[in-house]
Amino acid sequence: MDFIIKNIKDNALNISRRIGYLMLGAESSNVYNIVRKLTGNHYPRFHIYLKQQGQDFIFSLHLDQKAPVYQGTHAHNGEYFGPVVEDEADRIKQLLK
Asked: Could you count the other beta carbons within 10 Å of the beta carbon of residue 21?
């Protein structure tokens, strides 16, 4: 699920902290890989590719149910839509108002 939040006067690291996510790294100079675990294990977890465009941020959110099956691949069992993902998007929007 993709959504945009406009006019955030902050950086990606601070935004990830404000919404309870951990930054895993940067995919490029303006795209960040952030996650929020749902249990004490690595999975399931919410996963966002956070893209910064000026003061606007584009969130590409999904729920990773389990780790990739084959080493070196990015394929996983993920949910991109549905009530759980929508609730998480709403939570993030409320926190960043």
From this structure: 22
pLDDT of res. 92: 98
Rounded distance between C-alpha atoms, residue 84 and residue 46, angstroms: 10
Residues 6, 38: Cα–Cα separation, whole Å: 27
Region at 37 (left for phi over 0; alpha for psi -120 to 50; beta for the rest): beta
| Displacement of CA 49 from its chain's centroid (Å) | 5
Residue 38's CB is within 10 A of a number of other CB atoms, namely: 14
Domain ranges (residues) in the chain: 2-95
pLDDT, averaged across the chain: 91
pLDDT digits (tens, 9 = 90+) for 56-79: 999 999 999 887 766 655 656 789
Element containing residue 5 per DSSP (H, E): strand 2-5
